[in-house]
Amino acid sequence: MSTASDNDGIIFKEKNFGGQQWAIKSGSRYGNHAGALRSLKVGKFCKINIWDKNGTMETYLAGDYPDITQKIPNVDIVQAVDIQFKFSVDIRLKHNISGKPAEGFKLTVIPYQLNPVEIVSGADYSGVQIPELNPPDAEIVCQVAVRETAWPGQTVANGSIYFKYTPSNNTLSYRKTGGWPTNCDIVQDDVSGFTITLNSI
């Protein structure tokens, strides 16, 4: 029987760890088979946040969960977070630049006083993990920069954005200021997912 590594989780299509299974690493998310998950294993340095289609969220710490359907009958979004963090802002990058490959750009997100996260355009969401803030619903500013992946890696967008976690309903939001790069758009896709699009260089 599959065992979750310390930093990962394993999600299963059937109860009692049966059927198809997928590993999910801290800082990543899973939403391709909404509603199809029934059981879960979580490593000791990982926690799994699961939202249903109504926005209800449950957090699962280290352990084995043979049946999650009582609390989350219709799984929508599954997010893996390192236990030292409170939440994760799931971000992906797209672009509308003619003649450039889908993976032609790289986004760097640097939350205040935290390590940077790099996200290649055209890839799935990557988690920008944030610790608990004081107060818990405080905003955190993140520096954002987009550069070409091809040498010499020219920077084509640079600025900042604020993200906020609201504990009362376990949702994330963002706020743009004058520091947001004018050649980029951002949209919120769901409770934790955001798409940044580079429109021009």
Describe the structure using short key phrases.
201 residues, mainly beta, 5-stranded antiparallel sheet, 4-stranded antiparallel sheet, 0% helix
Summarize the structure.
Helix content is about 0%, strand content about 55%. By secondary structure, it is an all-beta fold.
Describe, in plain words, how this protein is organized in 3D.
The chain is an all-beta fold and 201 residues long. The strands form four sheets. It has a five-stranded antiparallel β-sheet with strand order 11-10-13-14-15, with no helix packed on it. Strands 2-1-4-7 form a four-stranded antiparallel β-sheet, with no helix packed on it. A four-stranded antiparallel β-sheet has the order 3-8-5-6, with no helix packed on it. The model has no long low-confidence stretch (mean pLDDT 92). The protein has strands at residues 8-14, 18-25, 28-30, 39-42, 46-52, 57-60, 63-65, 75-82, 87-95, 105-111, 117-120, 126-130, 139-148, 155-166, 171-175, 184-188, 193-198. Helix content is 0%, strand content 53%.
Helix fraction by DSSP (H/I, runs of at least 4): under 10%
Outline the biggest β-sheet: 5 strands, antiparallel
Residue-averaged pLDDT: 92
Q: Radius of gyration over alpha carbons?
A: 18 Å
**Head-to-tail CA distance between termini:** 50 Å
Name the shape in a single word. Answer: globular
Structural class: mainly beta
User: How is the largest sheet built, in terms of strand order?
Assistant: 11-10-13-14-15
Provide a count of the helices.
0
Helix-strand pattern: EEEEEEEEEEEEEEEEE
Strand content: over 45%
Could you give the count of β-strands? 17
Low-pLDDT windows of residues: none
